[in-house]
Amino acid sequence: MTQKQNSSISDELQTVLLDEHNFLKTLVQECLQQLLKSEFDRHINAAPHERSSERRGLRNGSYYRSLKTRVGSIELNVCRDREGRFRTELFRRYQRSEQAFLLSMIEMYIQGVSTRKVGNIVETLCGITVSKSQVSELSKSLDTQLHTWRNRQLTEDYPYLVVDARYEKIRTSKGVVSHAVMIVIGISEHGHRSVLSVELGDSENEATWSDVFNKLKARGLKGVEYVVSDDHQGLVNALERHFQGVVWQRCQVHFIRNFIRKMKRRRDIKTFLPLLKDIFAASSYQEAQRRKQVLLSQLENENKDAALWLDDEVESTLSVYHLPAEHRRKMKSTNMLERYNQELKRRSRVIRIFPNEASCIRLIGTLCQETSEAWETGKRYLLFDKEQRNIINDRRPQKQAA
């Protein structure tokens, strides 16, 4: 009989406590309200209407404050003292958790979650409604920090630069337009990589790249000896204008793609592509030149136009032989930056179309800032010492040294 009574009581408790709508929310609200009351009583050091020589202030009504918790938003009645000295520890802890909460939303945005999806995720997890505009406003808080980083002074020498661009779709008054995201990575004299510049441009023409390089020089860029990029004419012209006397390396991977497009038949690709790769695998500049002649002699009989193009263009892909042998594998192409661009694309493709330029540079720029800081404090990308720096200078082409 007693067992049946206990079972009945348990069922009633289950119904009243657990099955009742908003039970947990009500319970949390009552507990926090009691904590607030006890904390205020300790601050005043007297009960309501109590006359005491140890009283440290007078009560002055109360106000309501909303507190967002995991069980939803709850209203708390916060007591107020006449001097305005009372500051509850509960809300200080809440402020810290709120900062973490807001940071989490910003991090979701940075990770490539669209602003509308961020609002849905927060509402699902926390029971709190956050509008798309609220998330967008929160993400703008990154702007000041990002502006400082993008305009920081460059105090080190950067002997090597890797330059490339990718495209993002941005909504404008004219409709959805593709904008170039131009990125410059520098390798410092200590061998660490840094993202030196992240800029938006209408296209990769000479004027936009010139703006990028002018800003870098104004920020203190110096010591550049070697630049690797693709052969986009606007970029090449800007490099020749702003980095006279610097060794330019045409990306070998881009050159291979261009070479394949010159082939008329599929079987020609199988025949001649290994010979081109063999040139790039040579242990020295002289050996690369010898292998180039072997390829040209065979290619002329099958595709004279491709042979003429190769003879005119391949030299710019062999500038890497002016570098120390330990540096050549990593500096013969823009692969390092292209791989990073793919990572940026993985994050940005969730957004698909950015609402404006500021939104695009905010996401891409913050990702680049985060990566750059990790590179600068992580493992060195290349080893630089005085002997290797001298090798670079000694091997500089004569026409550029003049």
Task: Note the main attributes of this structure.
402 residues; alpha/beta; 2 domains; six-stranded mixed sheet; two-stranded antiparallel ribbon; disordered C terminus
Polypeptide structure, described:
This protein is of the alpha/beta class. It has two domains: 1-87, no CATH class; 157-401, no CATH class. It has 17 helices and eight strands. It has helices at 2-18, 23-44, 89-110, 115-126, 132-139, 142-150, 206-218, 233-242, 252-262, 266-280, 285-299, 304-313, 325-331, 335-348, 357-377, 386-394, 398-401; strands at 59-69, 72-81, 160-172, 175-187, 193-201, 226-229, 247-250, 353-354. The strands form two sheets. Strands 3, 4, 5, 6, 7 and 8 form a six-stranded mixed β-sheet that branches. Strands 1-2 form a two-stranded antiparallel ribbon. Helix 6 packs across helix 15 (357-377), helix 7 packs parallel to helix 8 and helix 11 (285-299) packs antiparallel against helix 12. Residues 395-402 have low confidence and may be disordered.
How many domains make up the 3D coordinates?
2
Structural class: alpha/beta
Number of strands: 8
Helix proportion range:
40-55%
Compute the gyration radius: what is it?
32 Å
Name the beta content range. Answer: 15-25%
Reported for the largest beta sheet, the result is:
6 strands, mixed
Helices and strands, in order, run as: HHEEHHHHEEEHEHEHHHHHHEHHH
Q: Please, what is the average pLDDT?
A: 83
Shape: elongated
End-to-end Cα distance = 107 Å
- Regarding quaternary structure, how should these chains be classified? single chain
Number of helices: 17
Low-confidence stretches: 395-402
